[in-house]
């Protein structure tokens, strides 16, 4: 089928299937089976049954995904060397906010380690006359090597325990500093399957499947992590973190997110991206 169109007949057929009790997942499978293009099929389902119909693939409990153990929904979780609070959890998309993932000292320690290296990258940026400045991302950043110091290793193994995802499937921690007015416009963290550089990037560890953004300080105002598709704002609170996962590199995961502009003070975050496989 080349020119596929969403006709009134198709919409009526979808409505019939739904009335007959078939879940949208089965309707989608039937459409794909008879040759419909997935994105058109999802659009048609969304038009007839509402947005949520396009989000049938469960991201919670999907085997082979990073996922904290919330089966008991205890208010505090054991992350190996620290008790971490669960502040809130959303199932679809999977978003979990943790409290007290890091101690104040650990946050300060990471900022201290990152500071000098941020300064260095600023010098490089000046040398190239700002040619790499990206208006969508007005923060300064650096990457740690995995396990490069005792503090980094401790934090990484805590994250691995909490999210039940092997340490070697994670990229090195990235630290970002946002000054007043700086932001990170909404984006997806997975690698765009349509981008020319993606096949090469995927050779090292496969796709990203999850993100943990850890707040290293509490800005005076602004700087929340926003999820525009679901209307969620996560307040940046020192030591807290927001986790979200995406089982496919597609906007239907609803994991569009960004860092809203910092209004007062600075905002520091450490981001851990989780890959499908071993990242070396
Ligand atoms: O700063 C934030 O709140 C979001 C950071 C982010 O999206 C990222 O590091 O990928
Ligand atoms: Fe991101």
TrEMBL record:
Gene3D superfamilies under this entry? q2cbj1_9rhob like domain
InterPro entries (alphabetical): Oxoglu/Fe-dep_dioxygenase_dom, P4HA-like, Pro_4_hyd_alph, Pro_4_hyd_alph_FE2OG_OXY
Q: Which residues form the Fe2OG dioxygenase domain?
A: 169-276
Q: Which cofactor does this sequence's record say it needs?
A: L-ascorbate
One Pfam entry for this protein is 2OG-FeII_Oxy_3
Kindly state which keywords UniProt assigns to this record, in alphabetical order.
Dioxygenase, Iron, Metal-binding, Oxidoreductase, Vitamin C
State the name under which the record lists this protein.
2OG-Fe(II) oxygenase
């Amino acid at each position: 089928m080349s020119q596929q169109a969403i006709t009134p007949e198709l919409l009526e057929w979808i409505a019939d299937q739904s009335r007959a009790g078939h879940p949208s997942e089965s309707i989608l499978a039937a459409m794909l089976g008879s040759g419909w293009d997935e994105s058109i099929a999802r659009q048609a389902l969304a038009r007839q049954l509402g947005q949520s119909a396009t989000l049938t693939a469960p991201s919670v409990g999907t085997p082979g995904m990073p996922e904290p153990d919330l089966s008991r929904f205890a208010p505090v979780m054991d992350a190996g060397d620290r008790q971490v609070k669960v502040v809130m959890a959303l199932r679809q998309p999977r978003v979990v906010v943790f409290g007290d993932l890091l101690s104040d000292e650990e946050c300060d320690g990471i900022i201290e380690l990152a500071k000098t290296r941020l300064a260095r990258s600023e010098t490089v940026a000046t040398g190239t006359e700002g040619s790499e400045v990206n208006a969508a991302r007005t923060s300064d950043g650096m990457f740690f090597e995995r396990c490069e110091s005792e503090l980094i290793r401790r934090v990484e193994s805590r994250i691995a325990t909490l999210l039940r995802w092997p340490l070697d499937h994670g990229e090195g921690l990235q630290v970002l500093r946002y000054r007043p007015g700086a932001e990170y416009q909404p984006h997806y963290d997975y690698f765009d399957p349509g981008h020319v550089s993606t096949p090469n990037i995927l050779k090292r560890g496969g796709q990203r499947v999850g993100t943990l953004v850890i707040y290293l300080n509490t800005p005076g105002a602004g700087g929340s992590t926003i999820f525009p598709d679901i209307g969620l704002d996560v307040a940046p609170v020192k030591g807290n973190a927001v986790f979200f996962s995406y089982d496919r590199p597609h906007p239907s995961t609803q994991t569009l997110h960004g860092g809203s502009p910092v209004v007062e003070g600075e905002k520091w975050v450490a981001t851990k991206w989780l890959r499908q496989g071993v990242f070396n």
